[in-house]
Amino acid sequence: MAEKIYWNKEIETMELDKMKELQSERLVRQVKHVWDNVPYYRKLMEEKGVTPEDIKGVEDLHKLPFISKADLREGYPYGLLAKPLSECVRIQSTSGTTGKRVVAFYTQNDVDLWEDCVARAITAAGGTKEDVCQVCYGYGLFTGGPGLHGGAHKVGCLTLPMSSGNTERQIQFMMDLKSTILCCTPSYAAYIGETLAEMGYKPEDNSLKAGIFGAEPWTEEMRQEIQKLLGIKAYDIYGLTETSGPGVAFECEEQTGMHINEDNFIAEIIDPDTGEVLPEGSKGELVFTSITKEAFPLLRYRTRDICVLSRKKCSCGRTLVKMTKPMGRSDDMLIIKGVNVFPSQIETVLLKDFNATPNYQIVVDRVGSVDTFEIKVELSEDMFSDTIKSVEALEKKLSADIVQILGIRAKISLVEPKSIPRSEGKAVRVIDRRKLV
Ligand code: ADP
Ligand code: ZN
User: How far apart are CA 190 and CA 167, in angstroms?
Assistant: First the structure.
């Protein structure tokens, strides 16, 4: 068997005790750093009656106050900065998916550590300096492009800074330069795959071997679809601007969740309603403490992403804790007719049972005091040319399956091929008109 390759074997395969020791040492230093340099943090800690002396190691983490996106918005732009601006070299910003954008700052060391995390992800996906890595995440304030770009450079890949969009040009470069690794959002990967097929290419015609996809929720079924379309192995990557960007966690060849870079981020799962820390294996909100970041260090940052942590032994040899694919954010969750609905539950039904195209949209509205709930599903060309009877049967089955999974009825609208807008970045799956009134 070939020897396993890691970017940083010592860290990625470190025994738990040793990792806890490392985390404790870094946490103590980090708490002192924010206490000394960020008045906003000192105030939050004082309000909770905790001082740096109370934090002696990871076992004391729970004593610290949480910090949330609302705090970051309040502190915008410089309120949480922990280093003089003269020591900062970069600003990135969130995509603003759920409201006002948040900005994050980086020292050179922060950038190096971030890129190092991404290099681990690329290596875990089989990337080496022999690879041609096509980065079609957006470049700019969004962390996707710069993050994957920096990581690919570190690994020594030939890096194509394509940014997102202009899909035909993406494909031309991909074919001409024989790209071997594709990095973008999963929804854009599906779009690229679809366009390739339309241009007459078969999955085996391209040189791609792996894709590194993240920045938005995607289901296991979506992974199968993309792997089939592009003829590759598709790896998940997770991160958020507040904690650096992509690379906070990454998938290995086992494809059963993402290893968290625990030497830089301590992960906890909490009950989103009570803030109580939940035991390993529980589903809840993911909270991160960044223990190495200098310019913008966050302690107990509430991500609002819902997932499960596991220390089950991984066949790749990494000992880093694993997180499941986030099933969506707590604030992505729709409450329709009083029932909690995650778009990912709907995606699972669509792709698994119907082999539908991964193009759908959920439209929620309110008529009087009653919620309306519609799922628009795009038919593939094949389905579109089927008899009316078979399309009706499809609609009926879909409707029944949705009721079974969610407990509420949705109006299913099967729409023509190509009628749902494609995404080059984060896909917009939900249109909630109730918020507009
Ligand atoms: P915004 O919060 O405005 O979207 P970011 O661009 O920083 O800003 O996005 C970070 C968020 O994107 C995460 O909190 C998470 O909800 C989502 N995300 C990132 N990677 C993944 C992934 N692999 N799977 C699911 N969701 C992801
Ligand atoms: Zn693994």
Answer: 11
